[in-house]
Amino acid sequence: MSVGKRGALFVFEGCDRCGKTTQSRLLAEFLKSKGIPTLSMNFPERESSTGQVINSYLTNSNDLPDEVIHLMFSANRWEYMNKIRKELLAGTTLIVDRYSYSGVAYTAAKGLDFDWCYAPERGLIKPDAVFYLKTASDNLLSRGKYGEERYEKLEFQQKVAEVFNRICEQESSYWHQIDANQSVAEIHTQISGIAEKLQQQVDGQPLNKLA
Ligand code: TMP
């Protein structure tokens, strides 16, 4: 089934402090400057009911079994699926800072089974592109404010990076690996070029699901 003019779903992924937030903002500003209706979101969305539990977990004020917090992160995305679908079909492009792949990468990095981690993500809307900001782990520590939240430890981030690299290989048809050690401007030029081209191609394309 084809649809009319729809927005694109662009996702940013990468380890903590890799520059995703800056690049998401720059891409949103770029698309808006081209007259494209654009909305920014991020996961976890900390305001919702699941989001508040996730926030207190991340700031180390409550502990939960790994399986439970994993399913909470996934439920947090499912809470927003109707909104995301509605916005995309109304022609709004969404720029999302973290998505299912962070869910898989952070939990699999703890040693849980990769397929188990991916299962609750099946059925969520599939992004049109994922921009993976790949950072050499030696550079992670030099990035500001590193170390305040639960997962911000170098050894753990290295494991997360390994899972992201695996997903990047598996999903190479729509994942774009970007060298995060370039300048902010260079990274933005690369990403905005890809996004602008894809933006024109999604017209009439149905929304796909993560399978
Ligand atoms: P943030 O710093 O981008 O707000 O993300 C908060 C932390 O939550 C970050 O360390 C990555 C982690 N995370 C997961 O463990 N699972 C998920 O599904 C998501 C979206 C983030």
UniProtKB/TrEMBL annotation:
Alphabetical list of Gene3D superfamilies matching this protein: P-loop containing nucleotide triphosphate hydrolases
Keywords for this protein: ATP-binding, Kinase, Nucleotide biosynthesis, Nucleotide-binding, Transferase
Domain Thymidylate kinase-like residues, every copy: 12-191
Keyword Acetylation among UniProt keywords: no
MF terms in GO: ATP binding; dTMP kinase activity; dUMP kinase activity; nucleoside diphosphate kinase activity
Similarity comment text for this entry: Belongs to the thymidylate kinase family.
Protein name, as recorded: Thymidylate kinase
Upper classification of the organism: Eukaryota, Metazoa, Ecdysozoa, Arthropoda, Hexapoda
Gene: Dper\GL10538
